[in-house]
Amino acid sequence: MRILVHGRGVxxxxxxxxxxxxxxxxxxxxPSYNQDLQVAINQDTLRLLNEIFQIQLQEVPTAHWIRxxxxxxxxxxxxxxxxxxxxxxxxxxxxxxxxxTKRFNGSVSWTDEKIDLxxxxxxxxxxxxxxxxxxxSLSFGKRVATIASARMSDSSNFSRVxxxxxxxxxxxxxSENEGKLFVIVANPDLCPKSCVExxxxxxxxxxxxxxxxxxxxxxxVAPKLSQPLVTANRIRxxxxxxxxxxxxxxxxxxxxxxxxxxxxxxxxxxxxxxxGLEYYRARILKTFQAHLHGCxxxxxxxxxxxxxxxxxxxxxxxxxxxxxxxRN
Length: 328
Description:
Structural class: alpha/beta
Shape: globular
Number of strands: 19
CATH topology of the largest domain: FAD/NAD(P)-binding domain
Number of domains: 2
């Protein structure tokens, strides 16, 4: 039996670990993970990752513990005293890869060469980079984000989420006096890179952010859903199955849980129980629909340029997805 795991992110590492733990040799296909974003991992997801990979991610040298977050939304302010771990995705995947290699050196192999996935007995698709004629991706909006490095005047153990005139922004500390600033807008055509500085100046961040630099190009952050989610010998997991609006705050957690459910589905298939494929598909669709409902609640009534359109697309997406739950 030849089992392939296509991708090098957290969902791929999780699937490879669970498969090897149950005695199934698998091959991880794809180049090293080259996205080095800063993410916040909440306590539930952190415990889950630490338990699966028998690791203490909070001990990764570049990780930074966040005590909570300050929220400024719809004219109201609030403090959420819920800890999370700020960590680069490159450092995260490197730590998981190291554990995987150490524990299952003979059960997991790696290759960055092109492989015909059709030759595999079963494939866990954790990436959208390898597309075939059966694959399609549905995007629910056009909102985009840019990321910049921020230097802060004071040390901070709190992240900050704040609504702005153009959308919203998220400041995630990476060390005592540095952080990553995420700026999300609905219409990038009307938002030059200078809008990052403007967003800071027009918000409470102006009191703590001294400067922003290394502003990255705009990237699409609207929710996306891959189709089909399952076939007879392939199942999509993590970013290979979906991507969420960053307002959800737990993309890593959803990716890990999709891998746990997908591997359970695979073990059911081995035992001749085929209903698991439809159950997996239904669960991912239900989770995605719940995420769109959350986006609709967040963006309802926004008057900033482009956000009325994003809200309308989200509602259309919910209507479109209703009958998908009954399709084969």
